[in-house]
Write a structure and sequence with these properties.
Blueprint: H1 8-33, E1 39-44, E2 47-52, H2 58-66, E3 70-74, E4 80-83, H3 85-90, H4 95-98, H5 112-122, E5 127-134, E6 140-152, E7 155-164, H6 166-220, E8 224-228, E9 234-237, H7 239-245, H8 265-278, E10 282-289, E11 295-306, E12 312-321, H9 323-359, H10 366-397, E13 405-408, H11 409-423, E14 428-433, E15 438-441, H12 443-459, E16 466-474, E17 477-484, H13 491-494, H14 517-527, E18 531-537, E19 541-549
The structure holds adenosine-5'-diphosphate.
Length: 552
């Protein structure tokens, strides 16, 4: 009744106050509705109190909206109360249509029994299982399903979090594939490795066999054999070498001086080092000292063994005992020496008598005169042969001696050419010797060399009759060449034609001779401090040339 007594103004002010409070309450409600505030502080009987609003889970909702997993809340009948957009996306359906549907809709038919069991147990305890989701376009999505119960105002609900395992599954699949490929590669590698090991084992066995084979062979041949490295260090001697020398091969090797005759040592070493450098075949004759202290002649040969790039790996050397052959040769030389010497005197007197008879030619019948001329020509040939034989035995005995004095080589070549034109009227001789070539030499012997080269040029040019003689100066020397366009020589023949008694065995082209001319010529040129050599091609012709030091 107190209130009835309030004045009109008092009532107005109360009404205003209430209106203000109402406006304030309306604002607060609006702020709550729009989510602008999460909590309120209210003045109560017990002072200020903080009230968080249900909308305070805004942050979590945002978080749930944005997360990569599907989030769904089910009621006890399995109907979807809430779904985030990610889940709608996963099942490829608009969000508003998803809410209110039974979750079963999205389970693959064959998975539904399993899903029922999971859900049933999930109401009692949280769980995690893998499940296949079915999108409306019948695409299966592998998911990890984790279930938790939620207590909502409306009652108990089930929160489902669905993690899309597609990428993970794909990655796993890829990983599995890669692992399988890796295992495959590994087993292929292992197989290859096994094969390689087998090959190596077989090769090692082969190598062992071939090494034993080589050793057996090397130790049983009658020659001394060794192998040496590109620097000349010997790394193997055969049993024959040890037996012959009486030396034991140690790591340090042995000094070649110990076994090679002192007179042969310098030439042996000179050739040895030269071939190590050039890679050519090493060949030298020398005397080896036996275990009993006596020397025997040996022919040494060593050939290089190269790899596929041509690099020398090592050398294989042999020393063959040629003592008996040497003795035979010496006997033969001795016989040749005596025989040619014995032949020389009767030949000279025979020639003298023939010349005497030929002086009285006019008084003789024509046929007899012709016989005498033929006899003189044959006798000349025989005399040349005997002289050559004598020269060879003198060279062997180291007695081919003659004095040296200045010789006009230009003049000598001119005379030789004239002589050749006279002897071989069917051949063309061109002489290109320059003027004034003076050498220190023996005229008779140099004449012998040039005539031998010219004779050969004619003899070995059956179908081309042009022979060129040249002499040029260079570096204080003169080079005299005799060129023909005849049968020519192969590389192997070129390497041997200066040997004593060597003749090319050619069945198509037979010629007379004993293989002494070039051997004697080489000896003469060497004695003149010069060098004789040949350039030739089979079927094309040859150029024999010698170099001599000039005195002017
Ligand atoms: P021969 O008396 O046999 O001619 P040489 O010592 O003068 O002896 O020559 C040795 C060998 O060299 C000859 O048998 C021949 O096969 C070869 N020869 C020499 N000169 C020539 C040449 N100009 N052309 C081809 N081969 C040649």
């Amino acid at each position: 009744m107190e209130r009835d007594k309030l004045t009109y103004d008092e009532l107005l002010s109360e009404a205003n106050e209430l209106r203000l409070k109402l406006e304030e309450a309306t604002d607060t409600l609006e702020a709550i509705r729009t989510g602008q505030v999460d909590a309120l502080i209210i003045q109560g009987n017990d002072g200020h109190q903080l009230y968080t609003l249900k909308t305070a889970d805004q942050t979590y909702r945002m978080f749930i909206e944005k997360m990569n997993e599907g989030a769904v809340t089910l009621n006890q009948h399995g109907l979807i109360l809430y779904s985030n957009s990610r889940f709608a996306e996963m099942v490829d359906m608009p969000l508003e249509k998803v809410i209110g549907l039974s979750f079963d809709t999205f389970i693959a038919y064959e998975e539904r029994g399993k899903f029922k069991e999971i859900i049933k147990s999930a109401w009692d305890a949280e769980c995690k299982e893998e499940i296949e989701l079915l999108s409306p376009n019948r695409k299966l999505i592998s998911c990890l399903l984790s279930c938790n119960t939620l207590e909502l105002d409306e009652g108990l609900a089930l929160s489902l979090i669905l993690t899309d395992l597609t990428i993970q599954k794909e990655t796993e699949k890829q990983l599995k594939l890669r692992n399988e490929q890796l295992a495959e590669a590994q087993s292929a590698t292992e197989k290859l490795n096994d094969e390689l090991e087998d090959t190596v084992r077989n090769r090692t066995a082969d190598l062992l066999i071939s090494r034993e084979h080589f050793k057996l062979l090397a130790n049983n041949i009658p020659q001394m054999t060794w192998t040496h490295l590109p620097d000349g260090t010997v790394n193997f001697y055969n049993q024959r070498w040890r037996d012959y020398t009486g030396l034991t091969f140690t790591e340090e090797g042995y000094s070649r001086e110990q076994v090679i005759h002192p007179d042969d040592y310098p030439l042996t070493m000179e050739r040895f080092h030269a071939t190590l450098k050039s890679g050519d075949v090493f060949e030298v004759e020398n005397r080896y000292k036996g275990a009993d202290g006596t020397y025997r002649w040996h022919l040494n040969r060593a050939i290089p063994l190269r790899d596929e790039t041509g690099k020398i790996l090592f050398w294989v050397g042999t020393a063959t005992d040629i003592e008996d052959q040497k003795r035979e040769m010496e006997k033969k030389d001795e016989f040749i020496g005596i025989a040619s010497h014995e032949l020389k005197t009767p030949l000279t007197s025979l020639k003298g008598y023939l010349q005497l008879v030929s002086h009285k030619k006019e008084s003789l019948p024509e046929t007899v005169r012709q016989y005498i001329d033929k006899a003189i020509s044959s006798l000349n040939k025989l005399q040349r042969l005997v002289n050559d034989l004598l020269d060879v035995s003198k060279i062997q005995a180291g007695r081919l001696e003659y004095g040296l004095r200045p010789v006009d080589l230009t003049q000598l070549l001119k005379l030789c050419t004239e002589n050749a034109r006279h002897v071989y009227p069917n051949y063309n001789f061109e002489n290109n010797a320059v003027d004034g070539l003076i050498v220190n030499g023996n005229e008779e012997r140099l004449d012998q060399v040039v005539m031998n080269l010219i004779n050969n040029a004619v003899k070995y040019s059956p179908s081309n009759n042009n022979v060129t003689i040249t002499a040029v100066r260079y570096d204080g020397q003169v080079r005299v060449s005799v060129t023909d366009r005849g049968i020519g020589l192969s590389a192997e023949q070129r390497g041997r034609i200066f040997e004593r008694f060597y003749r090319v065995e050619d069945k198509k082209f037979m010629s007379s001779g004993l293989g002494m001319g070039l051997y004697i010529s080489q000896e003469i040129i060497n004695n003149h401090h010069g060098k004789i050599s040949v350039e030739s091609e089979l079927g094309k012709g040859s150029t024999f040339y010698f170099d001599l030091p000039l005195v002017n």
